[in-house]
Amino acid sequence: MATTLGDVPVAINIQGLYAAYQRQPVLEDINLQFPAGKWTAIVGPNGAGKSTLFHVLTGSMKELRGSVQAFDEPIATHRKAGHIAYMAQREAIEWDFPVSVWETVMGGRYGHMRNDPLWRRLLPSRWYHPRHGEAVREALLAVDMLSLAERPIGALSGGQKKRVLLARTLAQQANILLLDEPLAGVDPPSERLILDVLAREREAGRTVIMVTHDMPGARRHVDHVVLINRFIRGVGSPDEMLSDAKLAELAVSSIEQAASDVRAAEASSFMAARG
């Protein structure tokens, strides 16, 4: 029987997750379910483990322990099938490299190209299967960048670059979209467009999971909110989780967590000195 959250199927189910960098805990005892076909915002202070959670979900970081499933199967199964697309906060793109907007977005199709015959993959891009070009065209149209498809990526504004990265994510045609601060550093028109695009993706039945610091935008658009600061601090509706009282609790937890980390570091140094 499929796992559900109320009467909604669960897209991603995380149980007992722990993660650390160089033995320093970043996420502890994470038990969390993301509803399918809904838009979830993940909210927390800097250093709370939000990006780390995405690294675990995308497979770029191995959890210390715990389990992660997507639609009641190991999440790796869905990653391999191309069902999960990720837009990182800072993409490892050389923006001065002489490639066009079209070519950059086509990079989102490379995972799908593994299913094409080898001979086609070895040909120039104009000979790629037509479905890849159509996916890129639809993605650029969605973010209002089709008219700039041939423009070098180095000539784009900050907001336009974010749109291109979103288009590359959309071109993957995945069921689950993971977006790490897609609104950071964008101009108001690009912010409105990105929010509208994500709303359409949700309406199309996709699961949207977004890390954000944009509280007004989250209150207006998302269905579900997760508060995190190393531990899960709250899960619920935007009205409840993004209330002034809840956000104040989250801020206090950040201060308390920082103080706890300092005490732990001092205790560790003391013991090391004695040893």
TrEMBL record:
CDD domains: ABC_Metallic_Cations
Gene3D superfamilies recorded: P-loop containing nucleotide triphosphate hydrolases
UniProt keyword terms in alphabetical order: ATP-binding, Nucleotide-binding, Transport
Keyword Nucleotide-binding: yes
PROSITE patterns named among the record's database cross-references: ABC_TRANSPORTER_1 (PS00211), ABC_TRANSPORTER_2 (PS50893)
Keyword Transport found: yes
Pfam families found in the cross-reference section: ABC_tran
Cited InterPro entries: AAA+_ATPase, ABC_transporter-like_ATP-bd, ABC_transporter-like_CS, Metal_Ion_Import_ABC, P-loop_NTPase
Residue ranges annotated for the ABC transporter domain, each copy included: 12-255
Recorded GO MF terms: ATP binding; ATP hydrolysis activity
Homology family: Belongs to the ABC transporter superfamily.
Name of the protein this chain belongs to: ABC transporter
